[in-house]
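Researcher: Please predict.
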Amino acid sequence: MAGDENPQPANAAEVLERLGRLSLRELSMDSLLQTVADLSKTVMPGNPEVSVTLLVGNDPTLMASTGQLAVDLDERQYERDHGPCLHAARTGEVVEVADARTDSRWRDYFSRAVERGCLSSLSVPLRVDEDQQVSGALNVYARDADAFDEDSRAAATRFGPYAAVAAGNLHAYQSARDMADNLRIALESRAVIDQANGVLIERYKITPDQAFQLLAQASMHANRKVRDIADHLVHTGEFPLR
């Protein structure tokens, strides 16, 4: 490839300086990860596409990408549950593919990579949150074979911590949001159950413990959640005694 299709890589030191000036107050987590991917692409040789994958437990998620090639190759690995991206994320090892046409490690994946025009790749592990079993990888998919030299490997490794911090912050934010949503649902459930208890206490002149036991029994007999039984009682007044 020649001309504009294979531009000269940008200066890694200048790009790293730009990354260092980025502020979480000015960018969303998604935007920050996308910026890391976009800037990584400008540094790497081989006219590449770049992706950032986050692995929570054993479930991979594509967090950012610079083009369809990266999306296709990441998703192919997710489908097969193996490949350089997932291996880097799971083992903490940098994985380089010099030539997908001759590499024997993940042949079914490499056949797709060659078909899509990717002949070499570099996956840098991201240490996000070991306690929460969260890891990731910064993936560079190059269209040329043997695309990476020592300088490009070093640059990719230096980009890793920026992606790891951004991915970690994004995961923490999403986890906190999910926890808040779960807490809200739990509080709403508690409120409607308390209301239903009050209805039963008044209707049958029983204690709070006895009222909850009635709800629990109705839940088991109807094979429905206690909250659903309580909600039905509160809104309709209907309650099966047995």
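Model: Residues 3-177 form a domain with the Beta-Lactamase fold (CATH 3.30.450.40).
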